[in-house]
Design goal:
Number of strands of chain B: 12
Helix content of chain A: 25-40%
Distance between the termini of chain A: 42 Å
Strand order of the largest sheet of chain A: 2-3-1-4
Radius of gyration of chain B: 21 Å
Strand content of chain A: 15-25%
Structural class of chain B: alpha/beta
Largest interface: A-B, 16 and 27 residues
Strand order of the largest sheet of chain B: 2-8-7-6-5-3-4
Oligomer: heterodimer
Number of helices of chain B: 13
Shape of chain A: extended
Order of helices and strands of chain B: HHEHHEHEHEHEHEEEHHHEHEEEH
Number of strands of chain A: 6
Radius of gyration of chain A: 21 Å
Largest sheet of chain A: 4 strands, antiparallel
Helix content of chain B: 40-55%
Shape of chain B: globular
Number of helices of chain A: 5
C-alpha cells in the first residue's frame, strides 16, 4: 500500500515527468534525497515503467491509424492465454494487449501508418498465428480523450477576470 | 445624477480591487496572480447535474430556504466534516453565494446603534455591507508575526460596549491564515463574556492544509451565537453558480429568510441541483483540487522566500501574503511598478485594510507553469530593489 506522500509523488510524476527532484521536493515537502531514492527504487522495480510525452499525432498532420482488435484465442493447457499474449506483445505494431472478460479473450491496440498497413498486419501476421481462432478489427475514427487527457475543445478555456476579490 | 444617490452610497469608497482591475485591464500579456477564484472548472459531474436539471424542466422557484434535499445534504455534510448539527428544516438557508449571506446577517442583526468588529486585513465586503445598514465598523488588527491570527488582546483594544457582532473569516482571504481550535477557544471566551454574536465565514474551510478545520460554531457555547457561512465557490470551483448558505439558530435564520424572501426569493434552482451533486458526488474531485493547491502553495511560498522576502506560511485558502516592505515601497506602489515593469498583476495588501499595508496578495489558483513564470518576473523586480 502506498503512503499518501508516495501516492502524491507518483501522481505528480505521472502528470509531468520533467519535474526535477528539487521541484518535486518544493511541491511535496519531501526531501530531495528521499525523492531521488524512491524514484530509483520505483524504476528498478518497474513501478515507473517509462517516461514519455503525450503526443496528439492528429495535430502533427502525420497520418497515424489505430485499431482495436478483438481476438478469440484457444487457451493452451498449462498456459491459458499467457503464451499467446506473450508472443503478441513482441510485435512492435501491437501497442497494447489486454486479457478481457466477456465475448472475446484478448483486446489489442494496433497502430500503423495506414488502414491498409494495419489490415495487412492483422490478416498476415495476427490471424495466422497458432491458437488464434478469430479476429474482429475496429478502426479508431477519432480520438476525443486519451489517457485522461481531453483532446477536443481544449482551445476554449474559459477566461477569468484578471483581478477579483 | 449623483445627487440622487443616498449619502450611504455616495460616501462608500469604491473597492481598491476595482481600481487595480481597471488598471490591469488596459494592459496586454499580463500574468495575473490577482484572481480570488479557482482556476479549475466545476467538476464535470456537477456541471452535468445542472444540465440534467434543466433538461428535466427544473426551472421554477424553489422554497425560500432552498431545496429541502440540498439542506438535508448540507446538514449531513456539516455534521460529518465539521461536527455541526443543524436542522435542515429550520436552521439552514440557501443563499446566492456566501456574499448574500454576509449581507443578510448584517441587515438582520445590525442597526445604526451597533458596532461590528472585523479583523484586518480581511475580505473587502464585510465593512461596506455593515455600513449600508448604518452600523459602525471597527477593524481589529492582526499581525504578520502572529501569522495573522486574531488575538484577544487586539479584540480588547477595539472593543466597545456597542459591539454586537464579530466577523471571523478563517481560512482567511487575503492572508491565507487559519485559526486552530486552540486559537479560537480564547476568542469564544471573549464572545461569551461580551455577549457578542459571530458571523463566521468559513468558505475556505475545505482548503486547509494542516490539521483539520475547526468550525467556530462547534466550540462549547458558540452554536447559538454563531452564524456559520459557507458556499460552494471555492472548494468545488463553483464561483459563477453563485450558491452558498448560512446555518444558525432558527430565530436568526427565520429573520434572515424574511429579508431573503422579499429581495431574492430563492437561490437559482440550477445551481441548487448542481450543489446537491457537489455534496454527493464530487468528494474525489475536491480532494484532488485541494492536493494541487497544496503543491502550488509550497512552490509559491518557497519562491518568495528564495527572493529574500519574508513570507509567513499560509495554511489555508489559496493566497500567500508576502511582506514586501524590504523593497522600500508601499504595497500599492509595489503593485503598480511590478505591473508596469514586469507585467505581473498582484493585489496590494492595503486594499484589504490598513494592516495589509507592506504586503501583497498573490493567489496560487494558477498552473505551476504560470506560477513559475510570475515568480521569475517578481524575483527580477525585487532584486532590483533590495
Amino acid at each position: 500500500m502506498l503512503s499518501i506522500e508516495d501516492h502524491q509523488l507518483l501522481t505528480l510524476i505521472s502528470q509531468d515527468c520533467r519535474l526535477s527532484p528539487e521541484e518535486l521536493s518544493i511541491q511535496t515537502g519531501l526531501t530531495v534525497e528521499y525523492i531521488t531514492r524512491r524514484i530509483t527504487q520505483w524504476e528498478d522495480e518497474k513501478v515507473i515503467v517509462q517516461y514519455h510525452p503525450h503526443i496528439n499525432w492528429e495535430k502533427t498532420g502525420e497520418s497515424q491509424v489505430a485499431a482495436l482488435i478483438e481476438v478469440k484465442v484457444l487457451p493452451q493447457r498449462g498456459f491459458g492465454f499467457d503464451k499467446v499474449a506473450k508472443r503478441l506483445q513482441k510485435f512492435p505494431e501491437i501497442k497494447t494487449v489486454y486479457l478481457m472478460s466477456g465475448g472475446y479473450d484478448l483486446a489489442l491496440i494496433i497502430e500503423g501508418k495506414s488502414m491498409q498497413e494495419v489490415a495487412l498486419f492483422v490478416a498476415e501476421k495476427l490471424a495466422t498465428l497458432e491458437h488464434i481462432q478469430s479476429t474482429a478489427t475496429h478502426f479508431v475514427l477519432r480520438r476525443y480523450k486519451q489517457d485522461g487527457v481531453e483532446l477536443m475543445g481544449q482551445e476554449d478555456v474559459p477566461e477569468r477576470l484578471v483581478i477579483s476579490p | 445624477m449623483k445627487k440622487y444617490l443616498t449619502p450611504l452610497v455616495t460616501e462608500m469608497p469604491p473597492s481598491g480591487i476595482r481600481k487595480f482591475f481597471d488598471l490591469v485591464s488596459t494592459m496586454k500579456d499580463v500574468i495575473s496572480l490577482g484572481v480570488g477564484e479557482p482556476d479549475f472548472v466545476t467538476p464535470w459531474t456537477v456541471r452535468e447535474s445542472g444540465i440534467f436539471s434543466l433538461e428535466q424542466g427544473q426551472t421554477m422557484y424553489t422554497s425560500n430556504a432552498g431545496l429541502l434535499q440540498l439542506r438535508q445534504a448540507l446538514s449531513s455534510y456539516m455534521n460529518k466534516s465539521l461536527g455541526l448539527d443543524y436542522n435542515p428544516n429550520s436552521e439552514i438557508l440557501i443563499t446566492v453565494g456566501a456574499s448574500e449571506a454576509v449581507d443578510l446577517v448584517m441587515r438582520a442583526l445590525l442597526g445604526p446603534q451597533d458596532v461590528v468588529l472585523i479583523p484586518d486585513p480581511s475580505y473587502v465586503s464585510y465593512g461596506p455591507c455593515a455600513s449600508l445598514v448604518g452600523a459602525n465598523v471597527r477593524y481589529v488588527p492582526t499581525w504578520a508575526d502572529e501569522d495573522f491570527r486574531l488575538r484577544v488582546k487586539d479584540l480588547e483594544k477595539s472593543y466597545t460596549p456597542k459591539a454586537k457582532l464579530l466577523v471571523l473569516s478563517y481560512p482567511n482571504n487575503p492572508t491565507g491564515a487559519i485559526m486552530t481550535r486552540e486559537d479560537l477557544l480564547p476568542i469564544a471566551k471573549f464572545v461569551e463574556e461580551h455577549d457578542l454574536l459571530v458571523l463566521s465565514d468559513e468558505i475556505y474551510s475545505d482548503l486547509t492544509y494542516a490539521g483539520t478545520h475547526t468550525a467556530f460554531a462547534s466550540l462549547p457555547g458558540m452554536r447559538n451565537r454563531t452564524l456559520h457561512l459557507s458556499g460552494f465557490s471555492k472548494a468545488y470551483a463553483m464561483t459563477g453558480w453563485r450558491i452558498g448558505y448560512v446555518a444558525g439558530h432558527p430565530d436568526l435564520i427565520h429573520g434572515m429568510t424574511k429579508i431573503h424572501q422579499y429581495t431574492i426569493l430563492c437561490a437559482p434552482i440550477t445551481a441548487q441541483y448542481a450543489a446537491l451533486d457537489a455534496l454527493t458526488s464530487a468528494d474525489q474531485a475536491k480532494y484532488e483540487m485541494v492536493n494541487t493547491y497544496n503543491q502550488r502553495r509550497r512552490l509559491i511560498v518557497n519562491g518568495f522566500r528564495a527572493m529574500g522576502l519574508s513570507c509567513f506560511e499560509p495554511l489555508g485558502a489559496f493566497y500567500v501574503f508576502p511582506n514586501i516592505s524590504a523593497t522600500g515601497l508601499s504595497s500599492e506602489d509595489f503593485c503598480e511598478q511590478l505591473l508596469s515593469e514586469e507585467k505581473v498583476a498582484v493585489v496590494p495588501g492595503s486594499v484589504f485594510g490598513p494592516s495589509g499595508e507592506g504586503h501583497i496578495r498573490c493567489s496560487y489558483a494558477y498552473s505551476t507553469e504560470q506560477l513559475k513564470m510570475a515568480l521569475e518576473r517578481i524575483s527580477r523586480f525585487v532584486q532590483r530593489r533590495l
